[in-house]
Automatic annotation (TrEMBL):
Transmembrane segments: 69-89, 121-140, 152-174, 194-214, 239-268, 280-300, 309-327
Highest taxon above the source species: Bacteria
Pfam families: FecCD (PF01032)
Protein name in UniProt: Iron ABC transporter permease
Transmembrane in keyword set: yes
Record keywords: Cell membrane, Membrane, Transmembrane, Transmembrane helix, Transport
Membrane protein topology class: Multi-pass membrane protein
Database matches in CDD domains: TM_ABC_iron-siderophores_like (cd06550)
């Protein structure tokens, strides 16, 4: 996180211009997501008369609009969580899944699927699994009250590994191919039938909760000792960051399953372009995550239409090369 553009360079005009540009890009991607797919429509067709226009409105409003809003919200939540975790752990390669939150959600969701429950129960089980892993991580990592980044990271990695192994066990216990396919699709990340009613308000609330603390986060990003010397309440702030990141990850995973790399790539790319000032980076990450996931979901729907790919496959195929580039870039600086 040393590639900083100094926070002092951020002006009100630059902040407004950048966020306005990202908002326009998000709007353009949302319109493309609504109009393009296995069947494409022009925006003005939605206001025309006739049976074709009615069919177009039905497809857009019933199928594509909820999916578009879900992609926007999930992408924003993952990118926001990634930004906060990279501040919390002071590691630009941290992402929302590194602390085991998504692993807990996976165990909860797959257990519910294996028990033959409804989709609503699967979502609730995923949320419960995410929060159980969060509480467990707290109990283990804060046992010595040190709250160090290293202890938190190592405990999270161990939890994530355990949850991954448990999820594999649940997959092996699937009694038939149909159920196994559904479980694998959930783990790959899929926005088909995703509901935005939880994720979108959660994104707004969590962003409003941390954005006013951006100046303190700028200080915390310089290290715990610097933050303490400047009078920042570091322990309380780290607590807040952790729980907001965990809540954002839980809401995203509950809505769209395991969608990787958005929370890793988007904050890092924005940091390279915009600098490290959290007054700009936090809202930019929320907008940028939505843009990236909307683009990935559009590719997932249109690449092999009418067949649809899990959006998590698209983000992984695009994200792995970028992730490797980031690793190489970091190694070159060491």
């Amino acid at each position: 996180m040393s590639t900083a553009t100094p926070a002092a360079r951020l002006t009100r005009r630059r902040q407004v211009f950048t966020l306005l540009l990202l908002a326009l890009l998000l709007l353009a991607m949302a319109v493309a997501s609504l109009c393009l797919g296995s069947t494409s429509y022009r925006p003005w067709q939605l206001w025309a008369e006739g049976s074709e226009a009615m069919l177009a409105r039905d497809v857009v409003l019933t199928l594509r609009l909820p999916r578009t809003l879900a992609a926007l919200a999930v992408g924003g939540l993952l990118a926001l969580a990634g930004t906060l975790l990279q501040i919390l752990l002071r590691n630009p390669l941290a992402d929302p899944y590194v602390l085991g939150t998504s692993g807990g959600a996976s165990v909860g969701a797959l257990s519910a699927m294996l028990a033959g429950t409804t989709a609503a129960v699967v979502s609730l089980s995923a949320a419960a699994g995410a929060w159980c892993s969060t509480v467990l991580l707290f109990l283990l990592a804060w046992r010595d009250r040190s709250a160090s980044q290293a202890r938190l990271l190592l405990t999270g990695v161990a939890l994530a590994s355990f949850c991954g192994a448990f999820s594999s066990l649940l997959l092996a216990l699937a009694p038939n191919d149909s159920l196994l396919r559904g479980m694998v699709f959930w783990m790959l990340g899929d926005l088909t039938g995703a509901s935005w009613q939880l994720a979108l308000p959660a994104l707004g609330v969590l962003l409003l909760l941390v954005w006013p603390l951006a100046r303190s986060l700028n200080v915390l990003g310089q290290g715990a000792q610097v933050a303490h010397a400047l009078g920042t309440r570091g322990r309380e702030l780290r607590w807040l960051l952790y729980f907001v990141a965990a809540a954002a990850t839980a809401a995203a995973v509950t809505t769209g399953g395991m969608i990787g790399f958005v929370g890793l790539i988007v904050p890092h790319a924005l940091r390279l372009m915009l600098g490290q000032d959290q007054r700009l980076l936090l809202p930019a990450a929320a907008l940028g995550g939505g843009i990236v996931l909307l683009a990935a979901d559009l590719i997932a729907r249109a690449a092999l239409a009418p067949q649809q790919l899990p959006v998590g496959v698209v983000t992984a195929l695009a994200g792995v090369p970028v992730f490797l580039w980031l690793l190489q870039r970091q190694a070159g600086r060491a």
